[in-house]
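Bench notes, afternoon.
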Amino acid sequence: MKKITHQKITKTKIKEWFQAYTFLLPAIIIAAIFFGASIIYSLYLSFNDVNLFSNTYQFVGLENYKRIFTDERALVGLKNTGIFALFVVPIQTVISLVVAYVLSNNNLKGKKIFNIIYFLPALTSSSALTLIFMFIFNVHGPINNVLISSGLIVEPINFLNDPNYALKVIMAMNIWSTIPTFMTIYLASLIDLPKSIYEAADIDGATSWQKLRYITIPYLRPITTYVLLMGIIGTFQMFDQAYIFSNGSGGPANSTLTVALMIYQYAFGQMNTMGYASALAVILSIVIFVVSILAERVNERSN
């Protein structure tokens, strides 16, 4: 009887596995073609000198990877991308957490209205947001008008064409547009936080800052890790905003040149160096992976 039961369980499991993988098969095929095959092909291209016009492939080994460390534009792109991620990710994470914590207060009047207002940027396309910010920071835009009328500056600042300000404008835009999404994630997680913990803290006389520091932040550690990882991936892959802002050039003076934009320029621009672009894409993937792992470890240790 035991053997028969064991055989029945085994057959049932096999049947369940077969059904599960049958349902998963379309997703597996799509992932294998559009992700697995693409990654393998990109690795292959990174070791070749590719000419798309003549459709020729010449094996060059590690030359494309060596070129990255001697290419000044590549180093500038990596520097800009690193600075962009270094400032944007922590700021958007902290602000998202604080705003979610404030909005989680049931006694806050107009809570639903604030939720809608804060989430509006997430509903707007990145292209539209870029054009809006380009208008706001224009020489004759609202920001310059406010600064001049308040007496902070005499002459208008050319934010869009000044290398000292161009990347900072994109940073501000990225922070403002990503906060709503991460705030909503934090807010959804705070709903599951037991209210009894806050009540116990109130009895002990804990302040709002102490509750945020010792209760909310440790409880949201897995969510913070997710937000950090998504922020790092998003900032390192930032392309459309820099492309629209600089009209695809990465200017002024390469101040808005990111690695993703540079990959596009080398792959599909006039340079026609798909092999080198593939090497840059591989390096970018490795950098994102390493930075993401480090951010996850730092977040775990700090909590």
